[in-house]
Specification:
2 copies of one chain form a homodimer. Helix content of chain A is about 40%, strand content about 20%. Chain A is an alpha/beta fold. The first copy, chain A, has 2 domains: about 5-120, 3-Layer(aba) Sandwich (Rossmann fold); about 130-225, Winged helix-like DNA-binding domain superfamily/Winged helix DNA-binding domain (Arc Repressor Mutant, subunit A, Orthogonal Bundle), CATH 1.10.10.10. A 5-stranded parallel β-sheet of chain A has the order 2-1-3-4-5, with helices on both faces. In chain A, a hairpin with a 2-residue loop joins strand 6 and strand 7. In chain A, helix 6 (about 155-165) packs across helix 8. The two termini of chain A are about 35 Å apart. At the A-B interface, helix 4 and helix 5 of A face helix 4, helix 5 and helix 6 of B. Chain A binds a DNA duplex through helix 6 and helix 8.
Chain lengths: ~220, ~220
DNA sequence: GAACACTTTATAAATTCTTTATATAAGCTG
DNA sequence: CAGCTTATATAAAGAATTTATAAAGTGTTC
C-alpha cells in the first residue's frame, strides 16, 4: 500500500511538530497548515487522504472550516481540540466530522483512530463506485469506466452522469437536472440538456439509438438505469 | 424515515436500562442482550442497524465477540467500556469497531456518535411504495412496476395512475380527474379520460375487458383498487 | 492559432396528445 | 322486451409537441 497523505490544520507549532513526528514515523506523509485559509487551500489544491482539524483556529473557527470542507471533501476529518465541552463534540460530529480527540491526546489512540477512519474509507462496503450494467462511476476520482476501460468525459458530461448515477432509477425532470448542473436561471435551457445527453449516449451506450442507460421520459425528463 | 433498530450487548442491567430509555426516547427501536452468546444470536437472526457492545462481558470477552461479529456484520459497531485503558481502545478500533465510548458516558455525546455512524449507512434512502395487488407505484422515482417489471408510461398516463393510487378505493368523478390532470377548463372533455383509461388498462390489467384495478362507476367516474 | 468545451441554431425524427369514428354496453320508457 | 337514449370502450387518423443530432458559432486555454 502506498503511503497516505494527512493534512494537519492546527495553529499551535508544538502540536504540529508532535503530530508530524508521530505520523511520519508511522509511515504517513504529513502536510501542515496553521490557519483555516491555508488549510482550505491546501485541501482544495491537493486533497489528502484525511484531515486532522483543530477547532480553535485563529482566523476562522474550526466549526466554520469543517462546514466549508464538508461541502465537497468526503474523506475522513478527525477533530482535535483542547475543548472537552460536550456541545463542541456534538456539533462537530453533526457537521460531518468522523471522529474527535481531545488534547492532550495519547499518540497510540490517535494512531488507532486514524487507522480506523482510513480503513472505513478503503473498506469495500464503502466503495465509492456506482455500478450500472457495464458502467462503473467513481465519484471520488471523478472517472467513468465502461467494462473497465476509462472513458474520456468533459466536466459537464461527468457532472451529468454523476447526477444520474446518484439517482439511479429515479425520473429526473429537465428542470431539476438543469438546476443541479447549470444552476438556477438555466431551468428553461432544455436544449443544453438534449445536446449533452446525446453526447453521453454516444459514449456510454452500445446502441445509442436504443439507449439502455439514459432513458428519456418524454415530456418529463430522463431516467438512469 | 422508519425507525432504526439498535442492538445493545451489555451485562449490566442498569446500563441496559439507561441506554434503552435514552435511545427509545430518541426514536430508535432497542433490542437487548446480556451475554455474548445471546448478542451474537440476536445479531445473526435479525441484523440491527447498529450494535452497541460492552467490552466487559462475562462469557466471551467483548474483543472476541467483536471479531466474530466483524466476520460478517458490516454495519456500525460502537464499543462501550468502563476500561479507559488506551490498549483497549486501540485493539477495539483495530478490530473494526467504528467508535468507542467510555462509561460513564454523556448521553448527548452518545446520541451524536450514533447519528454520525448511522448517517453514512442511510445515504441511499428507499422510497415509499404504493402497492395495489401486482402493481407498485413509486411516487418519488415516478415509476410504475407490475410484478417488479417496469412499465413504460407517458407523462399523462403516469399522472393519471398516480392520482388513482393516491386515492385508492375512492370514487373519483370525471370532472375531478379532468381538473387534476388537464386543469380547469377541461372538465367537460370526458373523452380524453376514456382514451387514457383504455390505454392504462391495456398496460396494467391482465384482462383489460374485465378490469380489476381501474373500475368504471357508470355515470360518475372511476375507482382504483 | 490550434484544440477543446460549451452555446446556439437548424432540421429531421419520434412520440404524445387530441380528435374523429364506430362499436359495445347499460339504462330507461312505454 | 323492443326501441330509444345515454354512457363507455377502443382504434386509428391527424395535429401538436417533444426529442435527437449535426453542425456552426463563441469563447477559453495552452
Amino acid at each position: 500500500m502506498t503511503a497516505q497523505e494527512i493534512l494537519i490544520i492546527d495553529d499551535e507549532p508544538q502540536i504540529r511538530k508532535l503530530l508530524q513526528i508521530t505520523l511520519e514515523s508511522n509511515g504517513y506523509i504529513v502536510r501542515l497548515a496553521s490557519t483555516s485559509k491555508e488549510g482550505l487551500l491546501m485541501a482544495a489544491n491537493h486533497p489528502p487522504a484525511m484531515i486532522l482539524l483543530d477547532l480553535g483556529l485563529p482566523d476562522v473557527s474550526g466549526h466554520e472550516l469543517l462546514k466549508q470542507l464538508r461541502e465537497w471533501y468526503t474523506r475522513p476529518i478527525i477533530i482535535l481540540s483542547v475543548l472537552s465541552h460536550e456541545e463542541d463534540i456534538i456539533r462537530a460530529l453533526d457537521n460531518g466530522a468522523n471522529d474527535y480527540l481531545t488534547k492532550p491526546f495519547r499518540t497510540g489512540e490517535l494512531l488507532a483512530r486514524i487507522r480506523s477512519s482510513l480503513r472505513k474509507e478503503n473498506a469495500p462496503e464503502n466503495n465509492p463506485l456506482i455500478e450500472a450494467g457495464d458502467l462503473q462511476i467513481d465519484l471520488v476520482a471523478r472517472t467513468l469506466k465502461r467494462n473497465g476501460e476509462l472513458l474520456k468525459l468533459t466536466a459537464t458530461e461527468y457532472n451529468l452522469i454523476a447526477l444520474f448515477a446518484r439517482n439511479e432509477g429515479k425520473v429526473l425532470t429537465h428542470q431539476f437536472i438543469l438546476k443541479e448542473i447549470w444552476g438556477v436561471g438555466f431551468q428553461s435551457e432544455t436544449q443544453y440538456l438534449r445536446v449533452f445527453v446525446a453526447q453521453l449516449r454516444k459514449k456510454i451506450e452500445s446502441d445509442p439509438n436504443h439507449p439502455k442507460h439514459i432513458v428519456t421520459e418524454s415530456g418529463v425528463g430522463y431516467r438512469f438505469c
